[in-house]
Amino acid sequence: MRIHVADHPLITQKLTVLRDERTDSPTFRRLVDELVTLLAYEATRGIRVTEVEVTTPVAKTKGVALSDPKPLVVPILRAGLGMLDGMIRMLPTAEIGFLGMVRNEETLEATTYADRLPHDLQGRQVYVLDPMLATGGSLEAAIELLLARGATDVTALCLIAAPEGLKRLQDTFGSRIDVAVMCAGLDEKLNEKGYIVPGLGDAGDRLYGSAE
Ligand code: PRP
Ligand code: URA
């Protein structure tokens, strides 16, 4: 499994404002959108393309088009939805599948409550969106499901990861070179409630308000 932590001052600056407890929801949503666009640049480095010919006003030359089947983008509801627009701005022809997952805040175990993905993902390249990688339970379950359906190349884009969550994914997918995690920041630890420290709090609530 490949892990990449972004190292860019613009990403760190936007993440800093995102973390700030005074940042309101409209600003939070805009920053998430901007951050995923920046992350997508690196996360799609291995996207499959096919050579095509293009005629400019001056000459014919070679270029590339995205290969078929087109990549599948999978936001994990709720918070992953905040990353969808930014991602498909970069990949407008991608297909989109939805996974609804929620973490039990007592046991910290993730359960899946919605699955609107193509059943057969044989050979598909998939980009999973979830801003927070805490215990890793949600992302582990999501990636297992995608691989079980035949996906052969899965990249997760996260805004903030905890070392505990990355270790869990490494333990599960360590031998797979076609699984990757890209994150904008790697934080210190989880607290006793399973929240990332320093983190940014509850990403879903900060994007959309409380679901309780
Ligand atoms: C949050 C977050 C991740 C998950 C991470 O979702 O968006 O999906 O927790 O935690 P984990 O790594 O310990 O599994 P939450 O369950 O709060 O649902 P929401 O997006 O609907 O708010
Ligand atoms: N989910 C969040 O939204 N934030 C955390 O810190 C951990 C899980």
Description of the structure:
This protein has six helices and 13 strands. The chain is of the alpha/beta class and 212 residues long. The protein has a single domain, classed as Rossmann fold (3-Layer(aba) Sandwich). Strands 1, 4, 5, 6, 7, 8, 9, 10 and 11 form a nine-stranded mixed beta sheet that branches. It has a two-stranded antiparallel sheet with strand order 2-3. It has a two-stranded antiparallel sheet with strand order 12-13. A hairpin with a 4-residue loop joins strand 2 and strand 3. Helix 1 packs antiparallel against helix 2 and helix 2 packs parallel to helix 3. The model has no long low-confidence stretch (mean pLDDT 97). Uracil is lined by residues 79, 132, 134, 195-196, 199, 202-204. Residues 79, 132, 134, 195-196, 199, 202-204 line the site of uracil.
What small molecules does the structure contain?
Answer: 1-O-pyrophosphono-5-O-phosphono-alpha-D-ribofuranose, uracil
**What is the beta-strand fraction?**
25-35%
CATH topology label: Rossmann fold
* SSE succession: EHHEEEHEEEEEHEHEEEH
Instruction: Give a count of the beta strands, DSSP E runs of length 2 or more.
Output: 13
Low-confidence stretches: none
Q: Terminal Cα separation, in Å?
A: 35 Å
CATH class: Alpha Beta
Sheet having the most strands: 9 strands, mixed
| Total discrete domains | 1
Q: Percent helix among the residues? A: 25-40%
- C-alpha Rg (nearest Å): 17 Å
By DSSP (H or I, 4+ residues per run), the number of helices equals: 6
